[in-house]
């Protein structure tokens, strides 16, 4: 059965697969977070005879060269919940938000829309989320995907009207990370463990997946989100999970890319929890993250459950090589367990955007 499945693979990065977009709360119109980079900055052309300005024209060229590459625009993100609340509370702003989103898709060459509302706080907002998705699906031509970034915590999941949302969605991107972190945890803990208690609470990937399945979402519509970064706990007294650490604020970030985690000298792996951790005694910092072993087992887990694929935040943190696959690559190890590249979705992207002025200006 699984050999015939075609998996979705999503990596979140400006030059890979998704583009983060915001909105104006006073009008409801969507906007670019970095218009110069997205639309105007001169870029290297991948196709002779074309001029390229902005990441989106370069991504469109990539779509021409790789017909299975889909580029979806993600609207929202952490810290933008007040914008969604302002938009859905006003019918005119909501209509404007939906229509401007569809216009962005058809003007800038996207293959769909991802709504990243983190998070509806009550039943009223949850119903507004359903209404937003319904309007978006009605206005968005069928060839385009409609997805959401879905929470992992039960407090946020329980607010959602999941069955009502599901009828409008192509798939759900489960954000199965940040189960623990320096800013909110009481003890050192895994932040993306597949099984069991993570050291600070009972959150784990397997339970998150089961929660959505129990609410009626088909396995094939669940895309397993994985982190491409580690969570750093400062002031840890050794390479131990479930131990106290310093809660004082520090100037250093509590996030480190996966490709930088190897600098920690004491490297360990918990096979039962399916999670990696490492410690630096000089800085007294402990980091928890996914490594290549975690990625392989998570890929096998996704396949065994019949899930729709994998998603990462964000692709810049992976271990990659320009010429050959890197053995430690999280994406490569995950995909290998799905059945390799041949198992991935191969349906063609959209290249026809007859109303687009931005894409029509690419010729020299």
Strand and helix layout:
Blueprint: E1 8-12, E2 18-23, E3 30-32, H1 35-40, H2 55-65, E4 72-76, H3 81-88, H4 91-108, E5 112-116, H5 123-139, E6 145-150, H6 154-157, H7 162-166, E7 171-174, H8 205-214, E8 222-227, E9 229-234, E10 255-257, E11 266-270, E12 275-280, E13 285-289, H9 292-305, E14 309-313, H10 330-338, H11 357-360
Parallel strand pairs: 1-14, 2-4, 4-5, 5-6, 6-7, 7-8, 8-14
Antiparallel strand pairs: 2-3, 9-10, 9-13, 11-12, 12-13
Q: How would you describe this structure to a colleague?
A:
With 364 residues, the chain is of the alpha/beta class. It has a single domain (2-229, 289-360), classed as Glycosidases (TIM Barrel, Alpha-Beta Barrel), CATH 3.20.20. The protein is built from 11 helices and 14 strands. It has helices spanning 35-40, 55-65, 81-88, 91-108, 123-139, 154-157, 162-166, 205-214, 292-305, 330-338, 357-360; strands at residues 8-12, 18-23, 30-32, 72-76, 112-116, 145-150, 171-174, 222-227, 229-234, 255-257, 266-270, 275-280, 285-289, 309-313. The strands form 2 sheets. It has a 9-stranded mixed beta sheet with strand order 1-14-8-7-6-5-4-2-3. A 5-stranded antiparallel beta sheet has the order 10-9-13-12-11, with no helix packed on it. A hairpin with a 4-residue loop joins strand 11 and strand 12 (275-280). The radius of gyration is 21 Å and the shape is globular. The N and C termini lie far apart (48 Å). The model is unreliable at 13-18 (pLDDT under 50).
